[in-house]
């Protein structure tokens, strides 16, 4: 008769800051926790280079790594355009052999204590399973649009000036810096975007052959503004080299497919950024017109992305929305002071935060489009909510009114909910352009 495996008392584990010579073991535990499929050498090298060792934690059972968590040092755009220090929580895993022992909670506890000590008022993450992080005070703050546009049936209506934009093919790496300059000019205009620190410019260029799944290598087309009435064209690698400033770009793959009726390929969009409506429309028109394709697949675009107003038939675009960035206010006062508000606001929040008790209690927020103050107060509360709801509403993409409708915010002073909800809004939808 065989033996039956039983749960035995857990041996003590050690939680400590990651050392450089431990990275491979640490990262292997992360890969195993996410299914065990090895990443490409290119991806592994990039994440090794981007890891901030003094901001990364490992849990060790003897020589075995059984838990991982990291925190990138980001600057996140908030409503009003300010760039606020934020810890980008990443690479969180617990070995299947060590679940339900409090390892995740211990890492989250240490992490938020560390983030507070670093003077960063926000922590942000993308969640493999959103249900996990709400108990640690993270609220869903941004959504991303997924779509599959039927380019056989959908047409574009483009604005004046589109024909004055010149497009050209370029090797993605050769125009990396010009594209990054366009990206950098976009960051302040949309909450949820992150300023890319050195090294992060290589993330959008990752293109391991092993992961193409039948698609082409990564391709890039850049947009340049020209004078006169010259028509938009796409010039090949052997054509013209002189040109104006790059004002937009798109990176994409093409996956060729055929059936008895002919070609039915897919354009897989990775990135598209542009500095003006005409350049933006010219890039979209190019993607619509790629030969031998019938659809464009989008996996992450802003919910208010303007292409939705260029298309002839929105119903044939297969639009869905899914959660993206989750926000945690580490220091309530500093976080609420770091952003501005659409309309004047003067409201007292009664905040519940069992995991970070230094945030518990009443806070008076006063502010407008020019700035804000948020201080502790003994005044009666106008609204009661948890730090999770503040995180959801923080970037202006989730309304306090909507949260109140779900019973997550309680109005204690008549009129306070509408006042605060309007003030917390954003003129553009928040969006995280890439994962981490």
Question: Topology, please?
Answer:
Elements: E1 14-17, H1 23-33, H2 41-50, E2 57-61, E3 64-77, E4 83-94, H3 103-117, E5 122-126, E6 139-140, E7 143-150, E8 165-169, H4 176-187, E9 219-225, E10 234-235, E11 246-255, E12 258-259, E13 262-263, E14 265-274, H5 277-288, E15 293-301, E16 320-323, E17 325-329, H6 332-338, E18 345-352, E19 361-368, E20 371-376, E21 383-386, H7 387-393, H8 400-405, E22 410-411, H9 416-424
Structure description:
- Strand 2 and strand 3 (64-77) form a beta hairpin.
- Mean pLDDT is 94; it is low at 1-9 and 237-241.
- The protein has an eight-stranded mixed β-sheet with strand order 10-8-9-11-14-15-7-16.
- The protein contains nine helices and 22 strands.
- Helices cover 20% and strands 31% of the residues.
- It is of the alpha+beta class.
Mean pLDDT: 94
As laid out across the biggest beta sheet, the strand order is 10-8-9-11-14-15-7-16
Global Rg: 24 Å
Low-confidence stretches: 1-9, 237-241
Measured between the Cα atoms of the first and last residue, the distance is 49 Å
Number of strands: 22
Main traits of this protein?
alpha+beta; 436 residues; eight-stranded mixed beta sheet; seven-stranded mixed beta sheet
